[in-house]
Amino acid sequence: MQCPLCQADNPPSADHCTKCSTPLPLADMTLPPPSDTLGGTMGGTMGGTQAWSVAVTPRPSSEAAAKGQLEPGFLLAERFEILALLGQGGMGAVYKARDNELERLVAIKLIRPELASHPEILRRFKQELILAREVTHRNVIRIFDLGQAQGIKFITMEFVEGRDLRGLIHEKVKLTVDEAVPIILQIGA
Questions:
Q1: Which of 22, 37, 148, 165 is placed for a possible disulfide with 17 were both Cys, Cβ 3.0 to 4.6 Å?
Q2: 44-46/92-99 β-pairing
Q3: Do residues 1 and 25 lie in contact, with contact meaning Cβ atoms separated by under 8 Å?
Q4: Does domain 67-158 have CATH number 3.10.20.310?
């Protein structure tokens, strides 16, 4: 079967392109209806059978993912849909993502590939994460998990909407006392 996106040849039984991961065939899929909390089914009735359709969209290439750069729409671990890049730092990049399994927003930190290839760095990083999970405070973001998929090592953590202090100070240059006091009280709490 030929991929409609990249034209690569794939085995007839393939459900995704081996080169670009595009779902095959590129069409709508009909899935069994999900159960609701009352034990019934959700979805419409078509031709006497209940079903709901989900449009299949091509997944972006994994080449950028191997470099630690994900584009919006990329599906990581068949679960996390990348929505936007939030920032980059020494350890890697942080993305806003949607956890499709639990239907919530999360932050995903990708560990830079050159760091992820060193077992000692990974061991120390994992130990740090284990210790960080023990901390529970309203001013500390919760870490959910350390994972690996598609050759990418990543951390899932709580997503908090808002602005960082550095950006606020850069924008305002100087905060008034009325602006600074609530921030200081929040940090010290």
A1: 22
A2: unpaired
A3: yes
A4: no
Which sequence spans correspond to the domains of the chain?
1-26+52-59, 67-158
Q: In the numeric block, which tokens belong to residue 1?
A: 């079967």
Give the chain's length.
189
Q: Which among 72, 79, 82 is positioned nearest to 101, based on CA atoms? A: 79
Cα-based torsion angle of the residue sequence 7, 8, 10, 15 in order, rounded to the nearest 10 degrees: -60
CA dihedral 70, 72, 78, 79 (to 10 degrees): 110
Predicted local distance difference test score (pLDDT) of residue 165? 80
Q: Where are the alpha helices (DSSP H) in the chain?
A: 62-66, 113-116, 119-133, 165-172, 177-188
Residue type, 134: E
Look at the pTM and tell me if it is higher than 0.70: no
Mean pLDDT by 10 residues, the chain (189 residues): 73 75 50 38 39 41 64 95 92 94 96 86 85 84 90 92 84 89 79
Q: How far apart are CA 62 and CA 43, in angstroms?
A: 33
For residues 141-159, one letter each, b for 16 or more C-beta atoms within 10 angstroms of the residue's C-beta and e for the rest, the string is eebbebeeebebbbbbbeb
Separation of alpha carbons 86 and 103, rounded Å: 20
Please give the C-alpha separations between residue 94 and each of 27, 51, 83, 107, 145, in angstroms, as whole numbers: 32, 37, 11, 7, 14
Whether 145 and 156 have beta carbons less than 8 Å apart is answered as: yes
